[in-house]
Structure formats: C-alpha cells, structure tokens
Design goal:
- By secondary structure, the chain is of the alpha/beta class.
- The protein has two domains: 2-13 and 191-386; 20-187, no CATH class.
- It contains 17 helices and ten strands.
- It has helices at 8-13, 20-32, 41-51, 55-69, 81-104, 106-109, 116-126, 134-139, 142-145, 160-187, 199-207, 223-234, 285-291, 296-305, 326-335, 348-361, 364-370, and strands at 2-6, 113-115, 153-155, 195-197, 212-217, 240-245, 313-317, 340-345, 371-375, 384-386.
- Strands 6-5-1-7-8-9 form a six-stranded parallel beta sheet, with helices on both faces. A two-stranded antiparallel ribbon has the order 2-3.
- Helix 2 crosses helix 4 (55-69), helix 3 (41-51) runs antiparallel to helix 10 (160-187) and helix 5 (81-104) crosses helix 7.
- The longest helix is centred in the middle third of the chain and has 28 residues, at 160-187.
- It is globular, with a radius of gyration of 23 Å.
- The relative contact order is 0.15.
Length: 388
C-alpha cells in the first residue's frame, strides 16, 4: 500500500493561494472593494457578515499590515499555517493572563460587569510586551474598529463567557475560510497548468503493484483528487484512491446553505497559567478533530496500515512536520515499521529542518533505515515536474 501525505506546501507548489496570509489579504481586499458585483449575492452577504468585525480577522490583519509597513519585522511573523497556530496559541495565553489581572484589579472589583472592550484593550497593550513590543502597537486599534465588543460584557464570576465569545469568533473565522477555500476550488485549481505529476513517480508506484493509494491530506482542498487521478488513468494503472482529510474537506457551504463549518482550525495543546485547561480545550486541534468527526476514517486507516506486506511506502509532500501535527504523523510512522518514508523538500533549508525534526524523534539508525529526503522536483525520484 502507498500513502501520500499532503500539507499546505502541496497547494502552494501549484500556485494556489491557501496560506492564512492569502486568506487575510483576500478578506481585506473584499472589505475594501466598493464594487463587489463579481461575487454572487449569497457569497457577498454571508462572507461580509462573518468577517467584517471578526476578532481574529482584525488581529491577524493588523499583524500583516504592520509587517508590511515595518520591513525589519518581516521575519517575526511568517505565513505558514504552523505560524498561524503558534501565534493563536500565544494570543490565547496572553488573554489568559490579562483576564485574571482584570478580575483581581481593585479598580474593577466594585463593578458588576467588565467590558470586553476594556479587556481587549489591556490585552493588546501588553501583548508580547517583553520581546515583541511591536505587536502591541499594531494590534491596539482593533478595539476601536470592532464595535461589537464594546457592547458585550462578562460577569466577574463567569469569565468563561469571554472565551465562549472568542471561540465563536474563531468558528466564524473558520467558516469564512471554508467559503474562501470553495472560492479557490472553483476559480484556481482547474487553472493550474505549469506543473504536473512526475511520470517517474507514477512508474515507481506502478512497480509496487499496489491496488490502493491512501491520500492523507492536512489541507482543506481536493487538489490531488482534481488534478492527478487522471494521470494514473492515462497510464492504465488500476488504482483505487482513498482520501482522508484530517482537518476536514472544504465544501460549498454557500450553495448548500450550511450555517456552520466542520473544518478543524486551532492550535497545539494549551497549558494555562490561571484558567482551567478545559476552558481552552475547544481551541485545540486535538479536541476539534474529535468534535468534528474527522478521526473515525483516520482510525480505520491506521488499522489497515497494520497489515504487513511488501513495497510499503509513505510519501510526505508539502508538510512542515510542525508541532501541532507531528503526533498525528507519528501515529502513521509507528503503526507499521516496515514502511519506508520519503519526505519531499523544496529547499536545502527545509531539508535540513526536516532532518533535525526527525532526528529528535528517532535515533540515527532508524532514520538511516526508514527515511529518505528527496527534492520535490528531482527528475528521477521527485513527485512533481515543472512544465516549461
């Protein structure tokens, strides 16, 4: 059995604008456009309602705006999804600190209610105060832009209400992102013309005499499905493709009239200093995978992976091996030790980073016997080929 694991780098290699920074810029351009006639009425109205005053959009758009103005900070906030998840984690930790300070401050103890706007203002003032003070300035304006928060209050004894609002805002942000993904699927995937699957890679799989290929995607878009199943059909390879979307698959929620999303969009495990960890469980990808039922098919896949046979290969394309997903990847790596794992890289820097990550998990003997690191576009063993 062959397993192909996809990360966001796979979409990016095909020119698809699916980084979180692409989404934020799309939102900003959409909101700034006076003429929105290029979008249908349902898309325009629903997308606007979800994003126009969304807390998380406002925070991340301010960060990108600041990054664009101050070039010296261009390396502080990167644009991969693991960077988004780490930053989301840092922000939640800062809110955890600040809300307790507000609840214990004598200035507020006499008040029955605390303004969310006041809490946000203080959180942003103190955000990354130690070594990333620039973030305070770039985020400070969101409380003035987002009028909805000035109208919401929490009671001192029920600070969980504050996190419920933050989580609801994150789910609205996620739903808007699913709408954006559907837009990408409709307008960009079929326009990809300058890249194709390496025919040598297809032949290597054909030599394995495998009937099943499992495509395990950490993306939300069906890029491999739409572009490359036909490549196997053209070469008369009788292969059954099985797709598993670890974080959910973007659907056309506009035309299907869905009012919610089941995509997973969160952060790593959060250990809070003041609040109970349960308050933040729902922000974690681990919990969301179970809450939104993306785990059942993955568990069935792991059981099939246990069967020992010859020519077992795992190919990883465009995944950062980041902290928020590495445990899921280890589940795959360790279920069957007979599998040979090929990690495709784009630059020598990413190759060296991948080697360091793998060496932290496995000893060198295991790395030498099970892992290969191959350039994405290697003529003989790469998975993709650029079309000149």
């Amino acid at each position: 059995m062959n397993v192909i694991i996809l990360g966001n780098g796979f979409d990016l290699a095909h020119g698809l604008e699916t980084k979180y920074t692409d989404f934020i810029r799309f939102c900003t351009n959409f909101l700034e456009q006076n003429d929105k006639s290029q979008y249908d009425d349902i898309f325009r109205d629903k997308f606007y309602n979800l994003i126009s005053s969304n807390l998380w959009y406002l925070i991340f758009s301010r960060i990108l705006h600041f990054k664009g103005i101050i070039s010296d900070y261009s390396n502080v906030i990167n644009d991969t999804w693991i960077d988004f998840e780490i930053l989301l984690y840092d922000i939640l930790c800062q809110f955890d600190n600040e809300i307790i300070d507000f609840l214990n401050d004598p200035l507020y103890t006499a008040r029955a209610k605390i303004s969310l706007k006041s809490i946000l203002h203080e959180c942003i003032n103190n955000f990354y105060k130690a070594d990333k003070n620039w973030a305070s300035g770039c985020l400070l304006g969101i409380v003035n832009v987002s009028g909805i928060y000035g109208k919401n209050y929490i009671k001192r004894e029920k600070n969980h209400d504050f996190y419920e609002i933050m989580y609801k805002e994150l789910r609205n942000f996620t739903q808007a992102f699913e709408i954006y993904c559907s837009y990408i699927i409709d307008n960009e995937i079929n326009a990809v013309k300058n890249i194709e699957l390496n025919s040598n890679f297809i032949q290597h799989i054909q030599k394995d005499h495998t009937e099943d290929i499992y495509v395990i995607s950490f993306n939300y878009t069906p890029t491999f499905n739409k572009l490359y199943e036909k490549s196997f059909i053209k070469q008369n390879i009788n292969t059954k493709f099985n797709y598993i979307y670890i974080h959910g698959k973007a659907t056309d929620i506009i035309n299907n009239r869905h009012n919610s999303t089941k995509l997973v969009l969160g952060t790593q495990n959060i250990e809070m200093k003041y609040n109970t960890d349960e308050v933040f469980d729902k922000f974690q990808k681990f919990d969301q995978r179970h809450d939104y039922s993306t785990m059942r098919v993955f568990q069935e896949f792991l059981r099939k992976l246990e069967n020992k046979s010859i020519n077992n290969n795992i190919y990883i394309v465009g995944h950062s091996l980041g902290i928020t997903d590495i445990e899921m990847l280890q589940n795959i790596f360790d279920t069957n030790l007979d599998y040979i794992i090929t990690i495709f890289y784009y630059t020598n820097y990413s190759r060296d980073k991948f080697k360091r990550i793998i060496k932290r998990i496995y000893d060198k003997k295991v790395v030498d016997s099970r892992f290969n690191f191959i350039n994405l576009y290697d003529n003989e063993y790469g998975i993709l080929r650029k079309i000149e």
